[in-house]
């Protein structure tokens, strides 16, 4: 698998990387490019997945972008490691199993920092749970299968400003909270978190990959961006548009 590392650019506009993701997804789906991890950090952005409801965005002044991923509304911003695994999958396609394996891979990476995390039945993502405290999500996941290849991915809170989540109901879960590696006493850099996490993800995806390989190679990101040229993705309904309440 190749790593397209955009972290060196610092926080990047969300839709700029979305365009890059859709270009690479098309290349991977057509078997013209190896399976890919896009690793990046977003400028402050709120995005709404397909399950978002009006009640999840109580403050209608919050600018939110609709996206064609699973899940509800979430926040992306500085200090958060975003990883898009773009994997050409073999049949049978099982998005639920892919997400569960993603969760377990993240849990394995967090264990290297001494963090005990869990899966919560009926809720995607990776969680920190303790008796007498609300469950807190440390990593959100929203993955889509299209043209037999995965897209979108995960957002791991490393040193994220958690106050930025308070303008929405994260993931549509009013009875849960969010946390970060820093809040849990393990501050680190996004680069270090990526180095720790990606091998776990690569191993987790072997059973799904049409072209299995745990080997990780750093791609020439600038060359891929140049190769992308003036590519413009085929529009998806509402994708990239502003969220407007249904009622």
From TrEMBL:
One of its GO terms (biological process) is protein lipoylation. Pathway: Protein modification; protein lipoylation via endogenous pathway; protein N(6)-(lipoyl)lysine from octanoyl-[acyl-carrier-protein]: step 1/2. The active site is at 171 (acyl-thioester intermediate). Substrate binds at residues 69-76, 140-142, 153-155. The record marks 137 as: Lowers pKa of active site Cys. It holds the Pfam family LplA-B_cat. Catalyzes the transfer of endogenously produced octanoic acid from octanoyl-acyl-carrier-protein onto the lipoyl domains of lipoate-dependent enzymes. Lipoyl-ACP can also act as a substrate although octanoyl-ACP is likely to be the physiological substrate. This is Octanoyltransferase.
